[in-house]
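Retry 2 of 3 after timeout on previous attempt. Resubmitting structure tokens to design endpoint.
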């Protein structure tokens, strides 16, 4: 069953909203539609999530953008809810990828039960440099609120370029502040080994303790 996007309040402007030029969201939508038409591989993050989760899991696609990750997970049999602060991207996800539930909401204050989605998730993914684009200083809040929607010891998996606005040591401090720990770290979504010169970090997080 298809669902219209539900719009929630966004408390603080994200770097995506304040640090990009007017029309950037439309450009981003057009870019990924073009890449899909050209047959580019846009499913790397989804393949990793599919590997770490049990079949038919519930997955939170946090910072879902145009829905490319959640769409693949849906095709592989998972139940997906995608959330993003940008209504232009969520509208594109709804138009291009029917099936998952797509919502507009602020990750720093994410409360899906208040939006009618009470069931917890088996895992969450923050792909596409989500952590780089959240509002400055809210990284721990984002991780904490996303993790609060994941049941038990389910994974929270995130990946971003480490030489942009968010340095890896700052991210790791946010992970600790959110009550999480780094279980695994890789240099790419296809699990190439982490090394200190890597410019990208994929981290599998779980609850600390």
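Retry 2 succeeded. Sequence:
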């Amino acid at each position: 069953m298809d669902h219209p996007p539900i719009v929630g309040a966004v408390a603080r402007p994200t770097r995506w909203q304040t640090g990009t030029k007017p029309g950037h969201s439309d450009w981003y939508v057009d870019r990924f539609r073009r890449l899909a038409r050209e047959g580019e591989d846009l499913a790397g993050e989804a393949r990793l999530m599919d590997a770490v989760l049990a079949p038919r899991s519930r997955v939170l696609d946090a910072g879902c953008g145009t829905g490319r990750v959640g769409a693949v997970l849906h095709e592989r049999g998972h139940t997906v809810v995608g959330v993003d602060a940008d209504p232009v991207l969520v509208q594109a996800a709804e138009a291009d990828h029917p099936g998952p539930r797509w919502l507009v909401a602020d990750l720093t204050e994410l409360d899906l039960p208040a939006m009618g989605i009470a069931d917890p998730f088996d895992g969450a993914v923050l792909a596409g440099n989500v952590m780089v684009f959240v509002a400055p200083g809210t990284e721990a809040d984002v991780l904490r609120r996303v993790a609060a929607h994941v049941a038990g010891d389910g994974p929270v998996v995130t990946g971003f370029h480490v030489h942009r606005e968010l340095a890896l040591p700052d991210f790791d401090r946010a992970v600790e502040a959110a009550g999480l720990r780094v279980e695994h770290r890789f240099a790419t979504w296809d699990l190439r080994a982490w090394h200190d010169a890597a410019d990208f970090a994929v981290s599998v997080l779980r609850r600390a303790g």
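Attempt log closed. The longest strand covers residues 200-207.
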